[in-house]
Every structure is written in C-alpha cells, then in structure tokens.
Amino acid sequence: MSQSTLIDSLSKLVSENRNPETMDIDTLSCLEIVEKMNQADAEVPRAIQKELPHIAKAVEVICGAFQQGGRLIYLGAGTSGRLGVLDASECPPTFSVDDNVVIGLIAGGKEAMFRAQEGAEDSLTLAEQDLKQLNLSDKDVIVGIAASGRTPYVIGALNYANTVGAYTVSLSCNPDSAIACLAKTAISPVVGPEVLTGSTRLKAGTAQKLVLNMLSTASMIKLGKAYQNLMVDVKPSNEKLNARAVRIIMQATECSEQQAEKVLFDADMQVKLAIMMQLTGQNKQQAQQQLEQQKGFIRG
C-alpha cells in the first residue's frame, strides 16, 4: 500500500480524526490537561453500552467453546495485542484455568510486549503462522483486536480462522471496519477522536480493556468460576492470594479465619472445594463428587 493510499485510509477513520475539544491542549496547565483527558474517558462506557448485545453474544459463544474443549485466543498488534496478552495472562491465577485455555498472541511475539515491533503488524501471513503453531481448530474462538479495524496482522488472522471454521469476533473502535466485516460477531465501541490525535492507546485502549474484561470474566462466571460475587476458583499461589482465599471462604460461609484456614488445607488449597465442604459438612471426596455432578456450580 502506497503512503498516499494509507494516508487516505487513515483520514477516514474516526479514531484518527482530530478532537475539536483539545486543539489547544499544548497550552494548558497540567490540571487542565488531565481534566480534558478525564472528560474524554467518560465517553468510553457510553460507547461500550451500545455494544453490550454483541459482547453478550460473544460471551455465549466463548462459553460454548470452553465446554467443548475449545480455547479463547486473543490476537492483535501493539497496544491491542498487549491488552489481549494481559487479559489472557490474568485468567490462570484468577480462575485456575490452564495456560492454554485463554491465549494472547501479539504481532512480533514476546519481544513485542516490551519493545515495539511495529513492522510485524503489516503482515497478512504472520498471524496464520502463529495460529497454525497453536493448531487452531473449529472448536476455538478468535478475538481479533485492532483499534483502527484495519491491521493486516488481525485481518490475516480472521481470514485464516474463518477457513478453519473457528468462531471469529472483532474488537475495533471504528464502525464498519475491515475486521468487523470479516468477523461473525463484531464489537465496535466508537469512542471518537483521541485527546492526542491517533494515540489509540488512550480511549480506544481503555475501551478494548473494558470489553476484554467482560469477555473473560463473564465467560468464567457462566462456567461456575464464581459463587455469589466471589471468585471461588482463585489459585492461592502467593501470600496475598492465600489471604484472599481464606477471606473468600469466610465471606462465603460466615466461618472464622481459623475454620477457613483449616478447611482450605483439608481441601488441598482448592477454594471452591473448601467452601463446599464448609457449607455442607461433607468430606473432601463427597464435596468433590457434588461439585462434579453440578458441573462446578456451588449454587447447584
């Protein structure tokens, strides 16, 4: 693509337009700058609200994929890719899922997490190679993330995923984007021009982070990873998480700290199992059998 063609393409994107509210931002005080940014950020939840039906549809599909042994695979370049990797990396400690259940891919690989590999996003074939290494199948769900909605790396990923039969979801901040046209479900919160023109790590990045929070968290809740509003499958892998696990058991069962510590130990440090044992008075084997019968849902 020639530079003139690319400039013309960018000029048509809402996310690349100039924000009329911040034309004088370089003359403002520090307080005035952050006030402008805060006012702009307030537009993000309103944009996401319009997309909630599409987000809910994606959650339903993701839950179905998990139940069939499929995976949720986030894929993007730059900030978008980093946000996907971040959300994926938080799922194992928060919900005790294996590392390969929610996966984040970023154009340029692991090095791109810490140092920009901007050229990697221009490849239409690199994502296909990355997905082939994961043995992408029709059980999986791909979420292609690109603020502009035109990133070649993400376009290539969605094209390949469609040929494999994987379910495709797009997340962009421009209406009727290229990736939205390729995806079975398109999530497009249009947050408008950035405070700093073209810096889509700002409002667009915030919108993407909020949507990814919803996709993973709502999916895990629907899979029984929560009891009431407690994350009962948390993995107590350090002192803070161990204390949180004890507190969750106390909150769920109204028992003492000492009781919570004991039942957590008896449950081999499995919070959900400990709660079940404490609530029912059953031993570990009985409680485990009950949970299996209810597919991991304590409320069952």
UniProtKB/TrEMBL annotation:
Name of the top EC class for this enzyme: lyase
CDD domains: SIS_Etherase
Location of the active site: E90 (proton donor), E121
MF GO annotations: carbohydrate derivative binding; carbon-oxygen lyase activity; ether hydrolase activity
Pfam family, one: GKRP-like_C
Alphabetical list of InterPro entries matching this protein: Etherase_MurQ, Glucokinase_regulatory_CS, MURQ/GCKR, SIS_dom, SIS_dom_sf
Any single biological process term in GO: amino sugar catabolic process
Catalytic activity: N-acetyl-D-muramate 6-phosphate + H2O = N-acetyl-D-glucosamine 6-phosphate + (R)-lactate
Lineage: superkingdom: Bacteria
E.C. designation(s): 4.2.1.126
Keyword list, A-Z: Carbohydrate metabolism, Lyase
HAMAP family for the chain: MurQ (MF_00068)
Subunit structure comment from the entry: Homodimer.
Function: Specifically catalyzes the cleavage of the D-lactyl ether substituent of MurNAc 6-phosphate, producing GlcNAc 6-phosphate and D-lactate. Together with AnmK, is also required for the utilization of anhydro-N-acetylmuramic acid (anhMurNAc) either imported from the medium or derived from its own cell wall murein, and thus plays a role in cell wall recycling.
NCBIfam families recorded: N-acetylmuramic acid 6-phosphate etherase (TIGR00274), PRK05441.1 (NF003915), PRK12570.1 (NF009222)
Extra facts: A lyase-type mechanism (elimination/hydration) is suggested for the cleavage of the lactyl ether bond of MurNAc 6-phosphate, with the formation of an alpha,beta-unsaturated aldehyde intermediate with (E)-stereochemistry, followed by the syn addition of water to give product.
Family membership: Belongs to the GCKR-like family. MurNAc-6-P etherase subfamily.
PANTHER family: GLUCOKINASE REGULATORY PROTEIN (PTHR10088), N-ACETYLMURAMIC ACID 6-PHOSPHATE ETHERASE (PTHR10088:SF5)
Protein name: N-acetylmuramic acid 6-phosphate etherase
Species for this entry: Vibrio breoganii
